[in-house]
Amino acid sequence: MADTDTAAKRETDSIGTDELSQKAKRAKADNENGRGEDAKESESENILSGFKTSSVLSDSAREKIIFIRGKLADQEAVVVLEKTPIREDSLAELFSGSRLKLEMRNDIYSTYRLQAPPHLNEIKTTVVCPATEKHIKKYQRQESFLVEETGEDYQSITLPYIQKQSFSVQWVYNILEKKAEGDRIVYEDPDPEVGFVLLPDLKWDQKQVDDLYLIAIAHQRDIGSLRDLTSEHLPLLQNIFQKGKEAILQHYNLPASKLRVYLHYQPSYYHLHVHFTKLGYEAPGCGVERAHLLSDVIQNLQSDPEYYKTRTLYFPLRADDGLLSKFKEAGRL
Ligand code: M7G
Fold first, then answer.
1. Which residue among 135, 271, 273, 275 is the active-site one?
2. In the chain, where are the structural domains located?
3. Which pLDDT value is given to residue 19?
4. CATH topology of domain 142-329
5. Is 292 a catalytic residue?
6. Whether residue 224 has its Cβ less than 6 Å from ligand 1
7. Does residue 147 register a pLDDT over 60?
């Protein structure tokens, strides 16, 4: 779930916006010429015209995001609608090309409703279809509880549960095998041991670097989470850290000192991946109860090769998460 303060805490750093704005301009030109990727998008059929809303799973007026459960051609679906930040490079067009309706005027104060041109008023839309019960739970607003997991708890409670219950990682394999999102890859090291693919996260629309969010997905397929990491994975982790930072500097002109690089524990998807987000952007799940800085992970493994096998780890679980019930049944909560 998105953090509540996200929008308020977005920094107004414009590093890298030039390149992004160039990209946006190119996309716009392609659109106008009726070709290119965005043109393809604009021609795509509106699959949501038949979407039937069942319920609002959660929403946030501050973050301007809503998670909706519904049916799409008789299949369960989750649709996420999110208003995107206003881009600095669109201001001139926003001011000159919009209609303005006065709401009230008082002394030196006045408020208006500004009707922007449609292409400056887009809503980022994510569709999960068919959505499983687990997806619906993931997006439903719920109370969370902090769980304390020892190395033994992991073996006896968590591991058996995640082996049966976790989300499919088919989308990850599609990326690694270039069956999906191939045109979005920012950087790849193809080495089977230490290699990875770096690409924009599903949550990032790439329109501005203020909310930059990329993920690095390891080519190795047998590392599920932090718990599987030992010192033998240090070359892989160091490679992701180093080359990921370099690629982001090159592509987005954002230095390492502006990045928050971390792993989630628990993740939603048990295939090693690293989150790269812009410092100052409160990405969902970047809080201390879930995010582990990659630099700390590397140092911990350097001082103790078995650190993540033996340490007690803490993480939040939602009220109706099956794993929480398992911890309760084992008397660990
Ligand atoms: P996580 O820590 O396993 O789970 O991170 P979380 O979603 O609870 O944070 C997985 C990351 O992969 C998240 O940041 C997702 O937004 C992102 N992600 C998920 N899917 C299904 C996709 C996808 O299909 N493509 C891309 N590019 N990113 C995805």
1. 273
2. 1-83+124-141, 85-121, 142-329
3. 41
4. HIT family, subunit A (3.30.428)
5. no
6. no
7. yes
